[in-house]
Amino acid sequence: MSQQSARATVRVFANPGSWIESDALVQCDQVAALDGMIRVAGMPDLHPGKGAPIGAAMLSSVLYPFLVGSDIGCGIAVFPIRIKRPNLERIAGRFPDLDRALTPDAPEWPDDIPAGHTDSLATVGRGNHFVELARIDSVLQPTGLAKGDLVLIVHSGSRGLGESILRAHTEVHGAGPAADPGAYLRAHDDAVRWGSLNRRLMAARVGRALGAEVGAPVVDECHNLVEVRDGLYLHRKGAARGDSREVLVAGTRGTPSYLVAAHAGAEANWSVAHGAGRKMSRSDALRRGKAKHTVAELRRTKVGSLVVCGDRQLLFEEAPTAYKRIEQVIGDLEAHGLATPVAVTVPLVTYKTRGQR
DNA sequence: ATGTAC
């Protein structure tokens, strides 16, 4: 039935010294064997995901919804924010409740909500998602930001909307291709717009709660989506658009993040990493973290930042030591000519969740 | 990563 064709290429853009979990490489090979697959590019933050690798851009003539996963539209946005004399304790205490959905009486309530999906609007979600007040620690290359400027970094996606889109497909077709790519893409595009709106609404909520002026985003890059390029489908799963633009590559809740000028070409599927990448599974991070860290040191980090996280389990799962070193990921991007560092941000206050769960 | 069930 399936015709014989040249197998897709797999290339991982990491230096030999950068450890990549072997399960993630196996997943890349499995993806490469899919019908229609042309080129799999693993980013230096590559790690195993649920059925498909995270930190990968996968170019194919066939559209596979499972390669993007449930959080369609997830991305990272950076907003300039002005606060006169930031008091971290006070800011942490005044952060809005981003676990609770926006209500229509809020001043931020938008006129146009993609897919009419109002559930969980302007909420951050869980997992690796966060909203962070950060300071520009150094500027390495001319850009619109200056040393000392404050920014709000928002990493979040489409919450239940993307999940429902993937589920609708999976219930009928499992890990198979989209039977009607156009229909999938129309729903998908709504989720991508919803994710971007979600990040803007959260920034606005934080600005209002802190009495701070929030500017238009200087970066807003989605790293989970399907991009149609020359009639082919480029599946991004934790891989940001990397062709001639600035992207924020997130560190961890307690280490710096990097704004980079991305200039990735076809061989890297026009992509760059989206973050530090997990070094261990959530269960390992919880087990090892409990032996290694106290809750107090995870809530007040080595760089002096505060982490608002009422959920102790999530705090351990998201510990900086559960992730690769961001400097190594950035070094790998540089070494392969995919990106050049532009500015370094250091966290001041990171919001994860108020709740206990 | 998610909403929901356990």
From TrEMBL:
E.C. no: 6.5.1.8
Reaction it catalyzes: a 3'-end 3'-phospho-ribonucleotide-RNA + a 5'-end dephospho-ribonucleoside-RNA + GTP = a ribonucleotidyl-ribonucleotide-RNA + GMP + diphosphate
Pfam families linked to this entry: RtcB
Domain of life, source organism: Bacteria
GO MF, one example: ligase activity
Known cofactor(s): Mn(2+)
InterPro entries named in the record: RtcB (IPR001233), RtcB-like_sf (IPR036025), RtcB2 (IPR017510)
SUPFAM superfamilies: Hypothetical protein PH1602
Top-level class of the enzyme under EC nomenclature: ligase
Keywords per UniProt: GTP-binding, Ligase, Manganese, Metal-binding, Nucleotide-binding, RNA repair
Protein name: 3'-phosphate/5'-hydroxy nucleic acid ligase
